[in-house]
């Protein structure tokens, strides 16, 4: 294998100059940079990563903590983080926690042990204070998608309330008055904000938000099944359901079919996320599109800024949009009686 000295000899410079060039610690004339790059390519030189990390004091790696990499939403988010990190010379270590507190805390401790240069944290549970205590005072951390109370680090979220506001307004404009909402865990930031957006749209239309028609549990297909079963088994079911994730919406679709009903003829449905499968299900799902790739990319940019001693915005909210497909129609005459 070619060595640093081999590259230096080929390029006609000192080994120290090559080392400093590779570590971005020297400003060389373009002609010199070109000779070093050409020598590296010709000799197929591979830097000694361990030596480089010892020299720079950096691992050149980030940690991404995600609740469930099998979930298409978090998989897309992780892919965006990896792309942006790799483009800037960083590897990404991904921990899929399954929503378990111990796994989340272990990932944070690994950062404290200098195994990574920074951490992008996503969670799907309400913190009991444990995560906040571990993150308190730590640098080079960015929160993504969900908040953790008591932590002062840059955050990247979407406009959750605007999303459900647009969804509810769309259902109301289509003639629906009896609208239910199925959401994630009670007290989670996104859940509270999406409920607030829904409530705002209903209030503006002079429509009641029935307590029995707001069901909060998990952002999962299984919870969509359980909640939709409760709603459709009622004597007076809603004519429309706003599912606060596309995964929940898939569960709702299953229950609607099991009850011998159809979407949107018997009940209308709106999701939240716009995962790739949303356009492929039958009927194609009307949903709120989150800019998932932009979220992941911005989180990495914020982390890089922190590493460079800069101060990113304390909180960034990315816009969402309503994507209309075929899962919403005016309520049937039978439902209006």
UniProtKB/TrEMBL annotation:
Is Transcription one of the keywords? yes
The residue ranges of the HTH lacI-type domain are 2-56
> What GO molecular functions are on record for this protein?
DNA-binding transcription factor activity; transcription cis-regulatory region binding
Pfam families, per database record: LacI, Peripla_BP_3
**Source species, domain of life:** Bacteria
Protein keywords: DNA-binding, Repressor, Transcription, Transcription regulation
Under the heading PROSITE patterns, the entry gives: HTH_LACI_1 (PS00356), HTH_LACI_2 (PS50932)
The question of whether Disulfide bond is a record keyword is answered with no
- Which InterPro entries does the annotation name? HTH_LacI, LacI/GalR-like_sensor, Lambda_DNA-bd_dom_sf, Peripla_BP_I
Record-linked PANTHER family: HTH-TYPE TRANSCRIPTIONAL REPRESSOR PURR-RELATED, LACI-RELATED TRANSCRIPTIONAL REPRESSOR
Please identify the protein, giving its name as recorded.
HTH lacI-type domain-containing protein
- Biological source species: Devosia riboflavina
């Amino acid at each position: 294998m070619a060595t640093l000295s081999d590259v230096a000899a080929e390029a006609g410079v000192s080994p120290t100059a090559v080392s400093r060039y590779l570590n971005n610690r020297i400003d060389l004339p373009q002609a010199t940079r070109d000779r070093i790059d050409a020598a590296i390519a010709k000799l197929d030189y591979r830097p000694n990563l361990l030596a480089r990390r010892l020299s720079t004091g950096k691992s050149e790696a980030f940690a991404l903590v995600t609740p469930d990499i099998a979930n298409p939403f978090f998989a897309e988010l992780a892919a965006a983080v990896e792309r942006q990190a790799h483009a800037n010379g960083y590897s990404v270590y991904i921990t899929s926690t399954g929503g378990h507190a111990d796994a989340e805390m272990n990932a944070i401790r690994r950062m404290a042990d200098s195994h990574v240069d920074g951490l992008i944290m996503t969670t799907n549970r309400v913190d009991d204070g444990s995560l906040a205590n571990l993150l308190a005072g730590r640098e080079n951390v960015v929160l993504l998608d969900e908040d953790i109370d008591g932590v002062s680090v840059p955050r990247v979220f979407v406009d959750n309330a605007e999303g459900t506001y647009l969804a509810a307004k769309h259902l109301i404009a289509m003639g629906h008055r009896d609208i239910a909402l199925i959401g994630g865990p009670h007290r989670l930031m996104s859940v509270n904000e999406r409920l607030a957006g829904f409530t705002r749209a209903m209030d503006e239309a002079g429509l009641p938000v029935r307590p029995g028609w707001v069901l909060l549990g998990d952002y999962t297909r299984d919870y969509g099944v359980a909640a939709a079963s409760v709603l459709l088994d009622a004597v007076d079911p809603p004519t429309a359901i706003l599912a606060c994730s596309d995964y929940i919406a898939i569960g709702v679709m299953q229950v609607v079919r099991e009850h011998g009903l159809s979407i949107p003829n018997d009940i209308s449905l709106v999701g939240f996320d716009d995962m790739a499968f949303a356009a492929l299900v039958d009927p194609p799902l009307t949903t709120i599109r989150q800019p998932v790739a932009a979220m992941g990319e911005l989180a990495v940019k914020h982390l890089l800024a922190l590493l460079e001693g800069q101060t990113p915005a304390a909180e960034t909210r990315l816009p969402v949009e309503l994507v209309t497909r075929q899962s919403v129609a005016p309520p049937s005459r039978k439902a209006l009686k």
